[in-house]
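Newbie here. two chains, one complex. Structure please?
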Amino acid sequence: MALDFSAIEAKWRKAWYEAKVNESVPVPGKKKFFMIFAYPGVTGYLHVGHMRGYTFSDAVVRYKMMTGHQVLFPVGTHATGNGAITFARRVERGDPVAVDVLRANGVPEETIAKLKDPMEVVKFLNDVFINDYWKRFGFMSDWRRFTCTIYPDYSKFIEWQMRKLMSEGLLIQKPYFAPACLEHGPVAIDASETDISKGGNAEVLEYTVLKFDLEDGRKLVAATLRPETVFGLTNFWVNPEVEYVDAQVDGEIWVVSREAAEKLALQKDKVLVKGSADGASLMAKRCRAPYTGKMIPIFPSVLCDPNVGTGLVMSVPSDAPVDWIGLVELRKDTAQRERYGITDQMMDEAAPIPIIDTPGWGSLPAIEITERMGIDSLADPKLEEATKEIYKTGFHKGVMNEICGGFAGQPVERAKDAMRDEMLSSGQADLFYDLSEEVLCRCGGKVLVKKIPDQWFIDYASPTLTERAKEHALTMKILPREYYENMQAVLEWYRERACVRLGNWLGTRFPFDQKWIIEAIADSTLYPAYYIVSRYANEGLVRPDGMTEEFFDFVMLGKGNSEAVATSTGVPRETLDAIRSEFEYWHPLDINLGGKEHMTVHFPVFLMNHVAILRPEHWPRGIIVNWYITATGGKISKSKGGAQPIPDAAERFGVDAMRLFYAHIASLYVDVPWDDEKVEGYRDRLERLWSQVQELLEVRADEESGIDAWLAARMQTRLFTLHRYMDTYDLRSYVNDVYFEMPRDFKWYLRRYGKNKSVVSKALETWIALMAPVTPHIAEEMWQLSGREQFVSTYQIQPGSVDEHIIIEEAKERLIERLMADVAEIVKVTGLEPKRTVVMVAPKWKQEMLAMALSDPKGKPDVPALIKGAISTVESPAAKKEVPAYAKDVSTEVMKASAEDRQMLGALIDEMSVLSAAKGFLESELGCAVEIFAADDPGRADPKGKARLAKPGRPAIYLE
RNA sequence: GCAGGGGUAGCCAAGCCCGGUCAACGGCGCAAGGCUUAGGACCUUGUCCAGAAGUGGUUCCGCGGUUCGAAUCCGCGCCCCUGCACCA
C-alpha cells in the first residue's frame, strides 16, 4: 500500500498555514528561538541541493518549537546586483537556454513575456521560492515577514545601516582598482559568472612597473611580479613585431604597447599617446636598469604579448626559465641576431647572474629546472610549470644573496615588498593592475581594471571593530567546530571592503552620494533584524516614508521614546512600541545558517555589522555552516538526477523523503552527491515506518506484559540522548536514532510478547512526535491515524530522564539479548542444533566482587584486595580456585569500562528471576528447552564444565 | 598566494575536539533463511581472517613517537579537497 505522499503533504501544509501555527508571536516570559538561513539571490531557479540547508533549518526550528520555544524563522530573498537584470535580458533576447528552462518549469507564455522586466523577474522568482520551495517543504516560517532587498522599506533600513556605519567612522573613501566593463561599469569576477561571460577565474594582479631609461630620455616600462630580481637583470625584451607607443604619463614618456597604454589610461590620471614607437629600432640598443643603474642590452623576443602587462619584459635568466630559454634560442638564431646587430659579446654580457639562494636549488635555478624538465624551446608548454615552481620555492624559501646590496641576506618574501616600496618612492617604479586572463562582460565588451578614485569602503580592518567581533565570536556557537576556530583568523584577515558600486544595478542608493548603489554584500549583513519590522511594513502599518533615522534608532537601538518618534514619523505610537518590544523579545538571533561559500565573505561581515551597530545584548549567538549536495563533477547534473526542478523532485520522491535524505545521508559538514536511489531508499523507509505504526496500533490488550517497563524505560533513555544530540544541532545522530534505532525498540517489544495498549500508545506518541521535526507531514498523518487531535507539530516533547530504575530495566533486557547472541554465536561455530540449552547464572560472590571492583575510586581495582575479599566469603573449594582468575578478569573489565558501562555493570539485577520470567520467550526463540540454574547449584547439568565461565550479566551456557 | 579541511572496511559515511564503551553508528550493496510469490517489496541473520563453544588474530593513508592502552594525541611523509571580497 503505497502512500500518497503528495496528498498528505498538501493536506497538512494547508492545515498548518490555515491554523497559523507558523506565525511567530512573542509570548512574554516564554523562551524564544530565532533562526534564519542566508537568503538566496533571485538569479534563477534553485536546485535540490539548495534545499539541504533550508530543510536543516526548518527541522531545527520545528524541534525548538516542540521543546518549549516560541520560534521566529523568517525568510527573504536577495535581489541586489544585476542577476535579475541579466535574467530579464536573456528572456528579452529569447535566449533558448533561459526560455526553455522557464517552459520546462511550466511557466505560461504570457508570464514569460512579462519577464523582460527585471522587477517582474524578482516578483516571479520570489513567488517561486516561497510557494514552490519553502511552503512546498512545509516550512514553519512566518510568511507575513517575507522581505526582499529591493523593497522600498528594506532600502530605508539599508540607508539607516549606512548612516550608522558612517557615524561610527566605519565608512572610508580611497582609490580602488576594480574590474570594470567600459560600458557597464564595475563587474564581479567569479566562477559563477553572474556579471561576465568569460574569465570567471581571472584575478586582479598587482604588477610593479619598472622604468628603464633610454638614451633619448624615454622610458621602457616593464611590468613584473618580481621586483626583487632587478639585481639579476641581464637584458631587456622587446617584440619587434609589436606596435608600441610613446605615452605621456605623469610628465614622463613611457614606451608601452598600445593595449597597455589603453589600460594605463584607466588607471592613471592623464595618459596621452604621443605617437607610435618602433620596437625594431630599439634592438641592440641599451637601457639603464632601475635601482642598480646597470646598462643592459635590448633583445628581440616574440614572447612579449602586447596584452599582458606593458607588452615589454625585463629579463632575469637566473630565476626566470622563460628568459633563460629566450637567451638560449637567441644565441642559436644567427639570422635574427645579424638582422638586429646582436654580437656574441652582447650575448656573453647577458650571462645569468645568481641573486637568490634557495635551499634545494643551485644558484641558477632557472637553468637547473629547464635542464631537469628537458625544456629547450619557448614553445614548450612545460615552461609555465617550471616558472611557477621556481617562483613558489624562491618566494617562500629563498634568501637574497651577497650581491644584492642592502637586501643581502633578506628572505625574498620580505625583500620583494621592501624593494618595490623603495623604487616606488624614488620614482623608478609604479604600480599597474591587470587581470590574469581575458575577461569579457555580459555585453561582450572587454573587462579591464579601472581606477575608481573616490570609492567608499566599510572599514572592516578597524582594529577596535575586529577585536570586539573576535571576542564576541568566542562566545558564540559556531559550527562546525573547525570554523569556530577559523573565525578568529578570518576576522583578523578581513580588510576594508568596497560597499558601493557604480552602474545600473538593482539596490539601494547610497545616502551620502546618490551616484552609488549599495553593493550586494554590504546590504545583506544586518538584515535578520529587519524581519522584525518587515511584517509591519508588509501589513501597511508602517510606510517607507515613516522609516526615518529616528524610527530605526528607536526600534532597534532603543533611542528616544515612542511619543517623540511617533510625532516625527507619523507612525502610531502603539505600532512603534509593538515593534520595539518584538525586537527586544526575539533578539538576539540564535542561529544564522548558510553554505560554506559564506565562510570568508558573508559571515564575518554579518558579525561585524552587528557588532558595529547593534547593542551587545543583541549580537548574534550562533552560526552554522552547511556543505553542499553535489553530483559527480561538483555540480548538480542530469545524469545523476537532481537537475529536475524542486517541485518535480518533491512530486517524485515526496518532501519528507527528501527531508530525511538531507538530514541523514551525511553530516552537514561534508559534501554529498545527490542520488535518486538513495532518496527512494528513504521514501521506502518512511513507508515501512508507516506500516509499523499501523501494526503498533493493533496492540489492544489491557493487561500488563513483562516487557512494558522496559519499553517505557527505553523511551526515556532515547529522549535523553536525542535532546543531547540536538544541543549541538547534531541532526544526523538524532535522525539515526529516531528512524533507524527506535523502530527496533518497538520490534523488540512485540517480539518479547509486549501487548499493552496504553504502554504502546504512550511510547508511540513520543516516537511520532520525535519524527515531526524532520518528516512533519507523515508524522502528522501518523498522529491523526493514532487518533490524536491537534497537531503533532505543536506537541511538546518531554525532556527524558535516566535514573537507576531505568538503568535496571535496560540491564535486564541486555541480559536476555546477550544470552541470545552468545547462544547464536556458539551455534554458528559448532554447527549444533541444540535440543536443550542450560543457562547457569553467576554465583553471588562474583556479583559482589564486581561491585567491589566498581567501587574502586581510582577506577583501577586492586586485584589482591579483591581476592582477599572473596576468599573469605566463598565456601566451596572449587569456587575458591576460581577466585584469583576471576579477580584479574573483573579488574581489567572494570578498567576498560566507560562511565555508562559502569552504570550498566553496576545495575544489580536478580538474573535468576529475570531469566526465569523470560524462559518461555527463550525456548521459543531458541527452539529448544531452556533450563536455568545457578552456576553453583550442584544439581545443574554441566558435563563440559562451563559453569565456571558464568559472569554477572553473562551466564554460562551449555548446549546439547 | 591567504585562510582552512580531509584520507575509516565492497561503496557512501559516523566516530577523532573529551584515548579505553571500537571489528569500529547507520545506509547502500552482497549472502543465507523466512514470508510471500500483484508489486522499486518486507522480516530475521550474516557480511576482515580463523574457529565444533560464547573466542583469538589482524585492521581505521604510510612511517615514527607519547601511553598500561590510539582510528582518536604529537612529529614527519605521500595523496586529495574547500573558500577567498563589489558573487550571495
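Moderator note: Residues 632-641 of chain A have pLDDT under 50 and may be disordered. The longest strand of chain A covers residues 447-458. Thread marked as resolved.
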